[in-house]
Amino acid sequence: MYTEGDKVRIKATGLVCEVVDVRQSVDGRKKYTVESDSEDAAGGYGSKWPLFDCSEEELEPV
Hints:
Strand order of the largest sheet: 4-3-2-1-5
Number of helices: 0
Largest sheet: 5 strands, antiparallel
Helix content: under 10%
Number of strands: 5
Order of helices and strands: EEEEE
Strand content: over 45%
Distance between the termini: 13 Å
Number of domains: 1
């Protein structure tokens, strides 16, 4: 389980990010919004520092 401010890596891409939001999905699972530490990283949404929505299984601590 991660909390806001934790540094994590998206396993599929190796991208290092910071957790900026934690919420519970409709099915009761935790979902994390993480912000990229790399400017203009591909695959996210937003602008200069892209955001990604991930499940706990998709992340690992840094």
